[in-house]
Design a protein that fits this description.
single chain, alpha/beta, five-stranded parallel β-sheet, 32% helix, binds beta-D-glucopyranose
C-alpha cells in the first residue's frame, strides 16, 4: 500500500513536469504528499538524528533509530558517512509507509576527504574564485559519499581571536564575509540537483561570535546597529544567493536565545524572502530551557516551531512534544505543514523522490575522493592562504638548493595537525608532512630533524639538539604553533600568546643560525611578540589541510609568491582584544604620544601587531594614475598597477570608505571593494573597481540610512597602509 501511494504521487505529476515551472510543480507535489501524511509522519520530517560520529562498523548503535527510520519518524540524519552506510539507512527509510527518502547532512567545513585550509585561512586568500573551487570539490566528494547537505559556510564575523570558533569563520570584516558567503554558497550548490552539488547551510544564525569575553556559547548583548552592520550582512547575502538552509546558533541575543528569536527570523523569512530550511544547532532547542527562556522542553518545541525552526537536530523536542502541542491546540497543524513543506521541497529539488540513491556511489567515491585534480585544487587554495608576515634581507624565497636543512618542531612531522580541527574524517589524515614535502623538493639536500619543544608542556630538554642541527645547517626552518585541537568549538582560550617555550626555542635557533625561516601554524591569530620582533622571515601557515606541506614548500622556494592578507587583526597584546580595524573614531581617538585625555592604553599600544589586510609579497607594486568618479548609482575608480619588483606576483588592491558624519557615527574605515591582480615582473595594468551606493548604507540608530553624505575614500595595501586618500559627496 505504502509503495503504491508513493508511486501514485510520483506518477500523478510526471506528465505535468514539462508543462510547468519547476518550483510550482514541486509545490504542488509537496502539497499533495503532505495531504497523505499523518501528523506523526509530518513530525518525523522535522526530526534529525545522528549516526555514530566515526562510524566504521554498523552505523547505528541504537537499533531504535532503525525502527524510527522504518516508521518515517526521521527526516534527516547527520554523521553518517560513506555511500555504503548512507545507502543502508536510506533503504530503511524507503520502507516507511510513504517511502520518503531521508536527507544526510554533515559538517564538511573545509573539505570532505581532501582537506582544504580552515575557512579563516581561506578568507586570508581574499580570493572568491579559489574559495568557490574549494567548496565545489568538497561538494563533489561529499555527494559521492552519500551526503546531500553540508553544514557550511560558517559566516560568523568575529573580532575576538580568543573565541575558539574563529577558525571556521570568515574573519572580522562583514564585506569580505559577504563575498565569501556568495562564493561558498555557489561552490557547494551549483548546479543544484546535479548529484554532485549539495545543499549549503549558513551558520550560525546569528551573532554567535559576539560571545562576551570570547568564551564559547557565552551571552551576546549587542545593539541593533552592530547586529545589522557587522553580523547579518553575510547571512543576508547567503539568503540572496539561494542558500538552501540556515542553522541556528547556541547564543542568546539580548535576552532571547537565537534559536527562537522572532526578530532575526522575521528578517530571514519576511524581509530576505528566504524559503529554505532552518535547522537548529545540535540540541539547541532543548538548551533554551538551560538558558532560562523556556519553561520546559515542550515550551521550547513550541517556541522554536513558531519562530520558524524547521528541523530539530538531536533535541528530540519536536518528536516528543509537537504532536501533543498540536492536539491541545497550542500549535496549529498548518505551522507544522509549513515546515514539512520546506523539507520536502528540498528533497524534491535534489531529485531524491525520483532517485533516492542518486547521492552516494561506491565507484565514484573511489574516483573522486582525493583525486589528483582535487589535490591540485587544494594545493592551489593553500598557496593562496599563506601570509608572508615578515621578510628581512629577502631571506625568502629560497631559490638555491641548501646543502643542509635543519627542520625543527613537532608540527613538521605531523599529519593530523596539518588538517586542523573539525574535519569530516578526522582520524584518517592523509596530509603530507612538511618533512616529507621538503625531502621531495630537495632530494639532494641533507635534511635533519629535531623536535626541539614538546607539542604541549614546557619541557626544554630538546633545545640543545635542535640548536645543534640548526648551527650546522645552511637553512633552518622552525615550525611553531597549535596542534589541531587547540582551536575550534569549545576551544576558547584566555591566553592566545604562543607558549614561551616555543618563542625561546625560536630565538635560540636564530642565534645559532640567522638564516632561519619561521612557520606559524594555528587555527586563529596568535600573539608572538618576541618572534615577530626577532625572527627575520615569518610565514603564517594556519592549518592548511592535505596539501599544506607541498604548498608551503612552493612558497618557501618561490614557486608561488605569497599573496594572502590578514583577515582578522592580529593583536599585539592580550589586553587589546577585541582589536579590529573598522572601529569608530570616538571624540578622543587614541594618540600614542598623548599622555592625557586620549583613548590610548597607558601600558601597551592600541595598535594591532598585524592589521586587517596586511601581507607581504616577494615583489613590489606601485599605484599611479588613480582616478575616481561618481556615476548615478556608484562610485568608480581606476588606477595603474605596476609590478616593479623582481618576481611575478599578485597584489590585493583594497578600497575603504569612511562616512565622515551623519545620523549615526560610522567606522573609521569600511572595506567596500578589493581585487586580486596578478602581474608579471615589469608589467603594468589598468585596474577598474566600483562601489555601488547600495554598499554604502548603514543601519543607523533605528533603521537603514541612505547613501547621501560626505565620504573619504582610501586605497591601500592594508587597512592601515593607505597610499591614496580623497573625498567625495553623494547629494
Ligand atoms: C556545531 C555546529 C555543527 C553541529 C553538527 C554543533 O556543535 O555548533 O556548527 O554543525 O554541531 O555537528
Amino acid at each position: 500500500m505504502k509503495k503504491i501511494t508513493a508511486l501514485l504521487v510520483s506518477l500523478l505529476f510526471t506528465h505535468a513536469i514539462h508543462a510547468q515551472d519547476h518550483t510550482d510543480l514541486y509545490g504542488i507535489k509537496v502539497d499533495s504528499l503532505i495531504s497523505l501524511m499523518t501528523l506523526e509522519e509530518k513530525i518525523g520530517q522535522l526530526n534529525m538524528l545522528t549516526g555514530n560520529w566515526e562510524a566504521t562498523g554498523p552505523v547505528l548503535n541504537d537499533s531504535n533509530k532503525a525502527e524510527k527510520l522504518k516508521k518515517g519518524e526521521v527526516g534527516s540524519m547527520l554523521n553518517v558517512k560513506g555511500s555504503t552506510n548512507t545507502h543502508e539507512l536510506q533503504s530503511l527509510a524507503l520502507t516507511s509507509r510513504l517511502g520518503i527518502p531521508v536527507l544526510f547532512g554533515q559538517d564538511v567545513v573545509h573539505g570532505y576527504k581532501t582537506i582544504f585550509p580552515i575557512p579563516l585561512a581561506q578568507a586570508a586568500s581574499f580570493d572568491p574564485a579559489a574559495i568557490r573551487s574549494a567548496a565545489r570539490v568538497s561538494a563533489r566528494e561529499a555527494a559521492v559519499s552519500g551526503i546531500h547537505w553540508v553544514f557550511s559556510p560558517m559566516l560568523d564575523v568575529s573580532r575576538d581571536p580568543r573565541w575558539g570558533w574563529v577558525m571556521e569563520g570568515p574573519g572580522e570584516d562583514p564585506f569580505l564575509a559577504s563575498v565569501i558567503a556568495r562564493a561558498m554558497t555557489e561552490g557547494y550548490q551549483e548546479p543544484f540537483g546535479d548529484g554532485l552539488s549539495v545543499m549549503a547551510c549558513a551558520k550560525h544564525f546569528a551573532a554567535y561570535s559576539g560571545a562576551i569575553g570570547g568564551r564559547d556559547y557565552n551571552t551576546v548583548d549587542i545593539s541593533l546597529q552592530t547586529l545589522h552592520n557587522l553580523y547579518l550582512p553575510p547571512f543576508k547575502v547567503a539568503a540572496q544567493s539561494g542558500i538552501a538552509s540556515f542553522m541556528t546558533s547556541f547564543n542568546e541575543i539580548n535576552g532571547i536565545p537565537a534559536t527562537a528569536h522572532p526578530y532575526i527570523y522575521d528578517l530571514l523569512y519576511n524581509q530576505w524572502n528566504f524559503n529554505g530550511m532552518v535547522v537548529s544547532d545540535w540540541g539547541a532547542i532543548r538548551e533554551m530551557v538551560m538558558h532560562g527562556y523556556s519553561k520546559d522542553r515542550k515550551q521550547a518545541a513550541r517556541q522554536a516551531i513558531q519562530t520558524g525552526i524547521t528541523i530539530d537536530m538531536e533535541s528530540n523536542c519536536y518528536s516528543n512534544y509537537l504532536k501533543e502541542l498540536v492536539e491541545e491546540g497550542s500549535v496549529r497543524e498548518e505551522t507544522i505543514d509549513k515546515a514539512v513543506k520546506q523539507v520536502l521541497l528540498q528533497k524534491f529539488r535534489l531529485g531524491l523522490f525520483d532517485s533516492p540513491y542518486k547521492y552516494g556511489n561506491e565507484l565514484k567515491e573511489k574516483e573522486e575522493l582525493l583525486s589528483p585534480s582535487h589535490r591540485e585544487t587544494a594545493r592551489d587554495v593553500v598557496r593562496r592562504s599563506i601570509i608572508l608576515l615578515k621578510n628581512e634581507a629577502n631571506l625568502l624565497p629560497v631559490t638555491h638548493t641548501p646543502r643542509n636543512i635543519a627542520v625543527i618542531g613537532p608540527l613538521a612531522y605531523s599529519k593530523r595537525d596539518m588538517d586542523g580541527n573539525w574535519v569530516s574524517l578526522s582520524n584518517e589524515s592523509v596530509a603530507v608532512t612538511l618533512l616529507e614535502a621538503l625531502k621531495e623538493r630537495y632530494p639532494q639536500s641533507n635534511i635533519l630533524f629535531a623536535e626541539g619543544y614538546p607539542a604541549t608542556g614546557e619541557d626544554r630538554s630538546g633545545f640543545n639538539q635542535a640548536i645543534e642541527i640548526a648551527r650546522n645547517a645552511d637553512l633552518a626552518i622552525v615550525t611553531l604553533g597549535e596542534t589541531w585541537n587547540m582551536t575550534g568549538e569549545a576551544r576558547s582560550k584566555g591566553d592566545i600568546n604562543l607558549p614561551e617555550v616555543q618563542q625561546q626555542l625560536a630565538s635560540a635557533i636564530y642565534q645559532a643560525n640567522p638564516n632561519t625561516i619561521t612557520l606559524l601554524m594555528a587555527g586563529r591569530p596568535t600573539i608572538f611578540t618576541q618572534i615577530s620582533e626577532e625572527m627575520p622571515a615569518i610565514l603564517y601557515c594556519w592549518w592548511l589541510g592535505t596539501e599544506a606541506s607541498h604548498a608551503i614548500t612552493d612558497v618557501i622556494t618561490g614557486t608561488y609568491n605569497p599573496s594572502a592578507r590578514v583577515p582578522m587583526s592580529f593583536p599585539a597584546h592580550l589586553g587589546q582584544i577585541p582589536v579590529y580595524y573598522n572601529h569608530k573614531n570616538t571624540g578622543r581617538p587614541p594618540v600614542e604620544s598623548e599622555k592625557n585625555y586620549s583613548g590610548r592604553y597607558m601600558d601597551i599600544t592600541h595598535k594591532p601587531r598585524y592589521p586587517f589586510g596586511f601581507g607581504l609579497s616577494y615583489t613590489e607594486f606601485t599605484y599611479t594614475a588613480i582616478q575616481t568618479g561618481l556615476k548615478k548609482d556608484r562610485l568608480t575608480l581606476s588606477l595603474d598597477l605596476s609590478n616593479t619588483g623582481n618576481y611575478d606576483g599578485t597584489e590585493l588592491v583594497q578600497v575603504y570608505i569612511n562616512k565622515v558624519w551623519g545620523a549615526s557615527t560610522r567606522p573609521v574605515k569600511e572595506l567596500k571593494a578589493f581585487e586580486r591582480v596578478f602581474l608579471k615582473k615589469g608589467e603594468t595594468r589598468r585596474v577598474d573597481l566600483e562601489i555601488p551606493f547600495s554598499e554604502m548604507i548603514y543601519y543607523e540608530n533605528d533603521g537603514w540610512g541612505d547613501e547621501k553624505g560626505d565620504y573619504k575614500l582610501f586605497i591601500g595595501r592594508s587597512s592601515s597602509d593607505i597610499l591614496f586618500e580623497t573625498s567625495f559627496s553623494i547629494e
